[in-house]
What does this fold into?
Amino acid sequence: MNTEPLAKCQRFLAALAHMRKLNMQAVAADKRQVTVMLPVQEALQNHQFKTYMHGGVLTTLVDTASSMSTLVALDEYELCPTLDLRIDHMSTPQLSQPLYAQAECYRITRSVLFTRATVYQASLDQPVAYAIATFMRPESGTTDSAFKALIDGTAAGLP
It folds into this structure.
């Protein structure tokens, strides 16, 4: 079993302060797809509307998981900004259960990466949301070399 895709995802999340603040965790990854978990957190709950999260949290989860699916699909880390993200909300998340986003990069071209994701709690068969996204592949040389080394696991001081 190749653990490098999961390790790459974990390094990516650890490198971003807002992902650490949300306590997002990469729980599974292979060359095709990733699963990211957002644990239950009181600070993210909106009791007024009886839903799990304040606005933007689900979008952040989906964008992050989708971005990470491009991370594992590419041989080396590339800075790939989000071009477009569409989320179809299917049900209201439960306050008492973590959210999971399973995303896959299903097509890679010279200039664009295409992803799809499912957000769920208890089961993929009961989605909270579906999403599709596209990511731009800028010209080579636009990715910060120190950050690339950190994500790829080649930075000095890494085990």
